[in-house]
Amino acid sequence: MAGNSFGKLFKLTTFGESHGEAIGGIIDGCPAGLELDVEKVQQEMQRRKPGQSAIVTQRKEPDTVKFLSGLFEGKTTGTPIGFVIENANQKSNDYSHIKDVYRPSHADYTYDQKYGNRDYRGGGRSSARETACRVAAGAVAKQLLENIKITAYTSAVGSIQLQKKFEDLNLEEIEKNPVRCPDPETAANMETLIREIRSQGDTVGGVVECVIQGVPVGLGEPVFDKLHAALGAAMLSINAVKGFEYGSGFAGAALKGSEHNDLFNTDGSTKTNFSGGIQGGISNGMDIVFRVAFKPVATLMQKQETINSEGELVEMQGKGRHDPCVVPRAIPIVEAMAALVLADYYLLNRNSRL
Amino acid sequence: MAGNSFGKLFKLTTFGESHGEAIGGIIDGCPAGLELDVEKVQQEMQRRKPGQSAIVTQRKEPDTVKFLSGLFEGKTTGTPIGFVIENANQKSNDYSHIKDVYRPSHADYTYDQKYGNRDYRGGGRSSARETACRVAAGAVAKQLLENIKITAYTSAVGSIQLQKKFEDLNLEEIEKNPVRCPDPETAANMETLIREIRSQGDTVGGVVECVIQGVPVGLGEPVFDKLHAALGAAMLSINAVKGFEYGSGFAGAALKGSEHNDLFNTDGSTKTNFSGGIQGGISNGMDIVFRVAFKPVATLMQKQETINSEGELVEMQGKGRHDPCVVPRAIPIVEAMAALVLADYYLLNRNSRL
Amino acid sequence: MAGNSFGKLFKLTTFGESHGEAIGGIIDGCPAGLELDVEKVQQEMQRRKPGQSAIVTQRKEPDTVKFLSGLFEGKTTGTPIGFVIENANQKSNDYSHIKDVYRPSHADYTYDQKYGNRDYRGGGRSSARETACRVAAGAVAKQLLENIKITAYTSAVGSIQLQKKFEDLNLEEIEKNPVRCPDPETAANMETLIREIRSQGDTVGGVVECVIQGVPVGLGEPVFDKLHAALGAAMLSINAVKGFEYGSGFAGAALKGSEHNDLFNTDGSTKTNFSGGIQGGISNGMDIVFRVAFKPVATLMQKQETINSEGELVEMQGKGRHDPCVVPRAIPIVEAMAALVLADYYLLNRNSRL
Amino acid sequence: MAGNSFGKLFKLTTFGESHGEAIGGIIDGCPAGLELDVEKVQQEMQRRKPGQSAIVTQRKEPDTVKFLSGLFEGKTTGTPIGFVIENANQKSNDYSHIKDVYRPSHADYTYDQKYGNRDYRGGGRSSARETACRVAAGAVAKQLLENIKITAYTSAVGSIQLQKKFEDLNLEEIEKNPVRCPDPETAANMETLIREIRSQGDTVGGVVECVIQGVPVGLGEPVFDKLHAALGAAMLSINAVKGFEYGSGFAGAALKGSEHNDLFNTDGSTKTNFSGGIQGGISNGMDIVFRVAFKPVATLMQKQETINSEGELVEMQGKGRHDPCVVPRAIPIVEAMAALVLADYYLLNRNSRL
After folding, report:
1. D119 vs A contacts (CB less than 8 Å)
2. Could you say which residues bind NADP(+) here (chains A, B, C, D) (predicted)?
3. Interval C64-90 mean pLDDT
């Protein structure tokens, strides 16, 4: 109820702050009999972890997932999968300068007001470190969904936008550049921009696009639990996300019905995909396509005026090792959350019919 | 689990199809002792109901909410509030022409594939008629939130966009025009566009903006159940919604941190509100601002090619009484869903501290 | 959360007080495609309804279930099944004599203290009238479980106990006597006792035994959601229940392991059934057997001393039409709750394996 | 959904098998600001742990609870409390003799049938080792309920029953004998019986009684979530439990209403307590009293005939270190589960009224 669980039948509950001994989680509801490739889980962790390239935070965390239960002889047993990830590099002293200060556009102020306490050593549960657990669990979910392929990539950094359409992209390129944009030229421009922004002690936002292929028809519930509502909630629960749209999205609001309707082929597929793979909240078998907007990281390496917990104006300057742009490392998180949603809805859908 | 409930502590469960005898719902978790003004509930129903103006569907439904339980001597008793709304005007024959036809960009195909059956008489649970129950329950939630003011309005119809900012709007104007746009001139242009579109047998999309004033600091949970994630899920669960953004939204993704950070005043309020009233998933006391994109209604009064349940290409033409633009009637639905989220998070937040 | 829902995947939510216009409920999660025999549902209602024999309350309620949604052409559609049951015979004046009085061993005092209000016209949600909704929903659940046979019967009234074992009983006898005891001789004695007790203005308790045949192996979860824990919670949620035991029950606590262990036959069945059909919280395919203790009805037709809401001692005498023994009418309620549990666990178990 | 969570607002989720590296859990929903005495948590662990006396299993487990999150400077932060308990003494080889054998009246057969796999090294999730996590979490819940005192004790071992009533007991005696019976003489007899039974390679059942003092009026919900239904489910979820009764229990079923009704004192307390502190599912401020029946442990140190996974009859003999009677070590588990229920209902009740 306090909001640390995600999903209904394939359910992840997480715990941990960035500066405790470890973070971790429990996956409850993974069916028995899944051969789990633990190495693949760790590969997803590498995609998210800090220090992986020159344009992300240089903190060092090995982010090794240790599974404590729910696996036996290489397979899931149907019982809860508990796991922990050590916080190897806590460096609490990085945060002493902000102990009594509310950083602008962070959760410091709201968190303190809500709970009457604040773990100033790194944002408590508001730290993006928590997303490491999501990536671990999402990697399990991905393996449950063996015929479904989830691919996210950077589609905008600041005002540089990827112009090509999904059909024209070479997805093999995504992991070849640190920005994770599938168009090499655009990727290079984005990387240059991020380096410039960082040299100014500033940060910049961006957009992630995600395409899910191979989804069977029928996932999603027609009323409150529409598939895109669950995907939206999942994405909006990621740190720094400001918006979510699927299919035609906000641009679709400007169209006429005669332009926007997706006409059928005789096999039930559609000639266009303004619907983004979901009609009436239920997957229609076409590619699911959505976009997620991320704000610029709030921690700047510049001086900013702010207030302290006494309500006094003070000047602060960010220290430590932060991302100038959150988007490249957000790619595996977006994929993980999408996998968690689909695994959950896949299990839910087993009971749609007798 | 099958997705017909919304909320955790203030929980609405709904039932009913557009062509049964009645639809209805149960609100479980409304605290005892709330003086409920039933007349105000009915006023909200009038704002949503069909036939209220020349630019919406001309179906006639009285949409009278009949409360069956949970009230005694004018107050809530703390027990479930059951209510029903009769389907007065079912006109099943309006739908006979689509019995075996999958309408493009509707839920017909996905629904049939999911459940192995289809109530062709109006879309089953995919019908927007279900939202009448949301408006009824939302009107109860609004009364629970007596110091919180939720105001939604039309901010775009097709490519006509409201240019004024919230601070410059006269909210009194909203209910004075059938489009529910607070700027009379823009409203007139929008109305003209809707009439034109309708005369072509076509439809058009739009955008709703919603501002929530008077929210206390502290509503929202820091991880999966961020306040904006719940608002997003709520909005995305409304029929025809394609996108959700709050605060700076998608535009914020193009900004730099130094432009986007909201600097504090000494009282904890902020000088700007790119955060949209929510920081780290928790309300900060500033106005909550979000926008919701609606696609054009899929039912056209034009000929369209489509397929039937045998997979044969057929030609169909919409009949009946449909909205050329869903946005004006969506306003009270957006407000209702926002009220349901806030009521739920208000109760949840009572347990944040000892 | 406020406790008016039961089940996870096959979920019943109920509303309604005994003195409102109607009570009702929503079944969410019944799979599509079930041919529902509405007449059978009504037959279960007849087994529970007041006025059915000389030894139960003489109130008259037709207790007709009206289904409002979720059915189409005789089958479930996979969408929520909403239903209402009118309160035909409210007779609010029967209760005016207890308006300010807390009846001993009723919920009057606790309810008032909890909610700060009390609907004195019949106990509010504490009225056993609410169980009519459970019987209606349970009758749907029974039809989902077509190969499972649930049989409850009276095994004790006061100190008169049914001595025969289940294997020696003729279950056809159950519905042939008003007590619903399958042994005609014992049934006659029980009926005589109830009549005597009633003539004294007194009431008496009893025990219901329930046997469930044809349960597949594998229903139940090994930790918190053991099958017998769910059955226990279900039974203890019925008005007037004081205890629950399954298999060997309390008597099993006095045995030695060498006496109590159920040895296997080679087909996995067991030679004895002290386990009551459940091992480690999971059904083992043997008959599930449990017993439920009901206290004597608290409303007496005798003078009793009690207090009023001012804390003053007053004398009261029950009026109206109450059951001298709740057990005969509790039989279909016990069966209904068992059916709800099994339907839920049947659906849950579909996801135990890949 | 897979049943590894307990509670709604104060929610415990556990993971772990007896033979993995560690077991653990997450408490989600503990309000911020509770000063947590970690030493007291560990004391509860000592009461449950194996090897604590001559009459329990001689396995050695330090059972040290390591808290990983949710605490800062000695207080709860309002965020999830993650904890792990190492499995120090796994001795997997103890179980090799039962690898292919289904032990009678264990979960081996049902577990294997349900999941298609079986972790034979100690029962998987069916192992009572899982209850260590319940005791840890219950110890946190106890500290949240500072004015509520929960006391469980052994009231029967085999056919030896504690004859004294709660009012006549010296609760200080409970922890002074290994049986945890508050009457020294009865305790001695029980201990003698357990030693005898063990010397025969046999086991014996028993009954635990629990009294909860200082409960405020108003905890519990009137319909499905009656307080005693939650307590019953909690107790029935403990390994080896066969029955639950509260207040007058099964004996109450033999009484007349005129004997059973609890007459009021003018302060709302009652002269008798057949109600067991709960009326209409809601606490009435009197002591909550309930009893829990435990079957004899199924693992015998005797030869037994059973079947293997091929369905062949085989002879087996228990090895290893098992409890001859589960009741003494069950006392802290019963208390822990009661504490979890009360903490949950305490938080739920905060929202009963405006």
Report:
1. 72, 77
2. 48
3. 93
Where is the binding site for FMN, in residues of C? 125-127, 239-240, 280, 295-299, 321
C89-93, D2-6, D342-346: which range is least confident on average?
C89-93
Residue D272 in this model has a pLDDT that exceeds 80? yes
DSSP state, residue D164? S
What is the per-residue pLDDT for D317? 82
D253 has a chain C CB within 8 A of its CB: yes
Among A98-102, B275-279, C255-259, the minimum mean pLDDT is found in: A98-102
- Establish if A63 belongs to a structural domain: no
Q: Is residue A149 part of a domain?
A: yes
Tell me if chain D has a CB within 8 Å of the CB of C342.
Answer: no
Cβ pair C352:A1 closer than 8 A: no
Minimal Cα–Cα distance from A267 to chain B, Å? Answer: 6
**Best of D196, D265, D295, D350 to disrupt the C interface by mutation (most C CBs within 10 Å)?**
D295
Q: Which of residues 153-182 of D touch C (CB under 8 A)?
A: 156, 158-159
SS3 content of chain A, % helix, strand, coil (to 5): 30, 25, 45
Do the Cβ atoms of B9 and D351 come within 8 Å?
yes
Beta strand extents in chain A (DSSP E only): 5-6, 11-15, 22-28, 65-67, 71-72, 75-76, 81-86, 101-102, 149-157, 160-161, 206-213, 241-246, 278-279, 282-283, 288-294, 303-308, 313-317
Output the DSSP codes for B67-132.
Answer: E-SSEETTEE-SS-EEEEEE-----GGGGGGGTTEE-TTSSHHHHHHHHS---TTTTGGGSGGGHH
Does B189 reside within a domain? yes
Give the span between the Cα atoms of B139 and B85, in whole angstroms.
Answer: 14
Task: Name the one residue in this structure whose structure tokens are 């001695």.
Answer: D188
Check if A351 contacts C (Cβ < 8 Å): yes
Residue A13 sits at the chain B interface (C-beta within 8 Å): no
Tell me the C-alpha distance between A41 and A20, whole Å: 23
Averaged pLDDT score across all residues of chain C: 94
Domain containing residue C283: 5-349
In chain D, % of residues over pLDDT 90: 84
Supply the CATH number for residue A305's domain.
Answer: 3.60.150.10
| CB-CB neighbors (< 8 A) of B297 in chain A | 257
Q: What is the pLDDT of residues C9-52, one digit of tens each?
A: 999 999 999 888 999 999 999 999 999 999 999 999 999 988 88
Q: With beta carbons under 8 A apart, name residues in chain A contacting B245.
A: 242-245, 250, 293
CB contact under 8 A, A82 and D17: no
% residues pLDDT > 70 (chain D): 98
Whether chain B has a CB inside 8 Å of the CB on D34: the answer is yes
Q: How far apart are CA D144 and CA D339, in angstroms?
A: 9
CA B118/CA B125 separation, integer angstroms = 10
Q: List the Cα angle D162/D168/D174 in 5-degree steps.
A: 60
Q: Does D124 touch chain A (CB under 8 A)?
A: yes
C-alpha A137/C-alpha B76 separation (Å) is: 42
pLDDT in the model for residue A90: 64
* The predicted structure's pLDDT at residue B182: 97
For residue D250, pLDDT beyond 70: yes
Q: Tally A–C CB contacts below 8 A.
A: 38
- 8 A C-beta contact, residue C87 and residue C21: yes
C354 lies in some domain: no
Distance from CA of A226 to the nearest CA of D (A): 20
For residue B295, the 8-state DSSP code is P
Residue A322 pLDDT > 90, yes or no?
A: no
Q: What's the total number of domains in chain C?
A: 1
Q: Any chain C CB within 8 A of the CB of D310? A: no
Which chain B residue has its CA at the smallest distance from A241's CA?
Answer: B249
Cα gap A106→D284, rounded to integer Å: 46
